[in-house]
Amino acid sequence: MCGIVGAIADRDVVPVLIEGLKRLEYRGYDSAGIAVVDGSDIRRVRRTGRVAEMEGAAGSEGFSATLGIGHTRWATHGGVTESNAHPHVSHGVALVHNGIIENHEQQRERLMAMGYAFESQTDTEVIAHLIHHYLQGGDDLLGALQRAVKELHGAYALAVVSRKEPGRMVCARMGCPLLIGLGEGENFVASDVSAILQATRRVIFLEEGDTAEVRRDGVQVFDGDDQPVLREEHLSDVSLSSLELGPYRHFMQKEIHEQPRALGDTMEAIIDAGVFEPTLFGKDAEAVLRGIEGVQILACGTSFYSGSVARYWIEAISGLPCSVEIASEYRYRTAVANPKHLVVTISQSGETLDTMEALKYAKSLGHEHTLSICNVPESAIPRASKLVFYTRAGAEIGVASTKAFTTQLVGLFALAATLAKLNGRLSEEKEAEYIEALRHLPGSVQHALNLEPQIALWSESFTPRHHALFLGRGVHYPIALEGALKLKEISYIHAEAYPAGELKHGPLALVDDAMPVVVIAPNDSLLEKVKSNMQEVRARGGELFVFTDADSNFSESEGVHVIRTPRHVGVLSPIVHTIPVQLLAYHTALARGTDVDKPRNLAKSVTVE
Ligand code: M6R
Asked: Glutamine amidotransferase type-2 domain location, by residue (predicted)?
């Protein structure tokens, strides 16, 4: 979704802003702009479409300055137009904003009554006018920002410059991430560290309610009471190479192929220890996890599906009851809390608003025991949680989540095993067996990746279709859901997933020779049931595409296509069976010529409702 970058330096910051915005493109956006302080003037360029178009306009207009801010916008309030693109300007004050201002209508009426004219339909423009209003009253830029944000309801990350104060930029954060990058004689702000990695790795994460003043020679942060406060400096470990495509055609393809490495990194501490330790989830985790009587998982999208796999594992392995719910639903229903349950939020980005709000709601209901499974260190959701398991997938750029999903599953499997151990339900033999299964996992995933040429051939059958069904049973049903989500989001083919046993209760009516049916059918205890369900499809002319593993006794026949992973990997089978459905979606999208990494209408980080 929206992205922010800002810079103050002794050199021209326009290339820094443009490069930063390009690094933020993966988040999804529909327009881009920059504003710079040039002498005693604000100069601004905005364009709908790609950053490159805005860059061209800035180049031809000769933009150059030592202080500036930039933004990629994903439209919420007001259409995709140049006048709605950020930065917004009010009488020499320019501002970029991520988030949503809920009371913007009241503020707009009030400011219009004061004589302010609006040129956009955005919620953001009120903030620019509010800051100008307080500047008129005698405040300096920082004071005006601090006053203005106290009148806002909603979520914001803001970076602001003024033509009257060319020596600083000011910023504020509430509900949306914002960080300050520390350079030598130059400093930066950004909503995501990838935007400033070209210049520095040293970062300060702003906390909720913070404001800050950023000058060339220093930074001062203020807390929600406007008192100076020290925030710790961190060294980002996001590597620039994770933001480069390398030999791959798309980030999604790269990220699918990175999974053996990502899984290996994520499980490194488990494999090194050779046992499941509560400390995997934080140094004080044992005290929390030992008393847990159940688990409530909250997440969205692909992360919800990893939670859905985890429900099978947690109940079967640890014996604890486990519920999993879509965060945007949980946050708005009257839930009954059991404070002895562990609330687990799962989020690749760590900043999904629905998941964050669901976590806050759970806490307000009395849930004290919270664990975040997350891929982005220091992001909002882990910071708001008592315990954390960081997946080590590395930056995930493709909008379609791939390596984040499989690494989340490793964290969740470790949670199931750890809870089982603390409950006296994990024998030493079983623990050793699970560790061994993990140890072999990257190799098994690599075998599944080697099936790519066969899967690419299959994709030719999907490319002309309008619909597809995905079936699975038990712990593989969420993999069918994930396969359907991947296919629909990047190829735009309508895809639905069902537990195979549910087919006869309705969806079977959809099956005819135009409906390809993908079946996840590993050689587990439900295989014979799945085979019966497949007969039901075949009898109605449906064409079957079966992903299975060794010894499952499937043979190819007319209308039944089979791809086999080399061996059954037992309890971790859902992870291995994820790879073929990712590859099928990728190759189908490739053949259909869609924008694989930035599918239409979607954003990488969903920071709005
Ligand atoms: O960052 P999160 O894991 O919280 O994101 C949740 C969903 O928005 C995300 O998984 C989305 O469904 C992906 N586009 C799926 O590929």
From this structure: 2-217
Q: In whole angstroms, what is the distance from residue 466 CA to residue 475 CA?
A: 27
Residue type, 588: T
Q: Using an 8 Å Cβ cutoff, are 217 and 185 in contact? A: yes
Distance between CA 327 and CA 391 in Å, rounded? 20
Cα atoms in the 13 Å half-sphere on the side-chain side of 440: 16
Task: Please state, in angstroms and rounded to a whole number, the distance separating the CA atoms of residues 250 and 598.
Answer: 10
Closest residue to atom 14 of ligand 1, CA basis:
400
Chain centroid, CA 556 distance in Å: 39
3-state helix, strand and coil shares in percent for the chain, rounded to the nearest 5: 40, 25, 35
Phi, psi angle pair for 97, to nearest 5°? -145, 130
> Which residue's CA is the nearest one to ligand 1's atom 8?
301
How many Cα atoms within 13 Å fall on the side-chain side of residue 370? 25
Domain 450-592, CATH among 3.40.50.10490, 3.40.50.800, 3.40.50.2000, 3.40.50.300 = 3.40.50.10490
Q: Assess whether 2 carries a catalytic annotation.
A: yes
Residue keyed to tokens 């064409």: 543
Strands 294-299 and 322-326: parallel
Q: What is the DSSP letter of 562?
A: E
Identify whether 488 is a catalytic site residue: no
Neighbours of 492 (CB within 10 A): 16
Instruction: Residue 6: name the closest of 93, 96, 122 by CA.
Output: 96
- pLDDT score of 143: 97
Beta bridge partners of 143: none
C-beta of residue 579 within 8 angstroms of C-beta of residue 256:
yes
For 59, other C-beta atoms within 10 Å of its C-beta total 13
3-state secondary structure of 487: helix
Task: Give the Å distance between the CA of 303 and the centre of ligand 1.
Answer: 6
Confidence (pTM): 0.84
Residue from 2, 171, 300, 322 carrying the catalytic annotation: 2
- Domain covering 260-446, topology: Rossmann fold (3.40.50)
Quote the pLDDT of residue 59. 93
Residues near ligand 1 (Cβ within 6 A): 300-303, 347-349, 352, 355, 399-401, 485, 489, 602, 606
pLDDT digits (tens, 9 = 90+) for 519-546: 999 988 888 888 888 888 988 889 999 9
Distance of CA 253 to the CA centre of its chain: 17
From the CA of 262, how far away is ligand 1's center (Å)? 18
CA of 404 to the centre of ligand 1 (A): 9
Contacts of 342 (CB under 8 A, 6+ apart): 288, 289, 292, 294, 295, 296, 369, 370, 371
**Alpha carbons 571 and 466: distance in angstroms, whole number:** 34
Give every strand in the sheet of 516-520, ordered side by side: 494-499, 467-472, 516-520, 543-549, 560-565
- DSSP one-letter string for 355-379: HHHHHHHHHHTT---EEEEESSTT-
Q: Report domain extents, the chain.
A: 3-247, 260-446, 450-592
User: From CA 564, how far away is CA 546, in angstroms rounded?
Assistant: 8
d(CA 578, CA 576): 5
Closest atom of ligand 1 to CA, residue 602 = 14
Given a contact cutoff of 8 angstroms between Cβ atoms, the answer to whether 406 and 270 are in contact is no
Report the distance separating Cα 197 and Cα 604, nearest Å: 19
pLDDT recorded at residue 334: 94
What pLDDT score does 566 carry? 76
Give me the CATH code for the 3-247 domain, please: 3.60.20.10
CATH topology identical between 260-446 and 450-592: yes
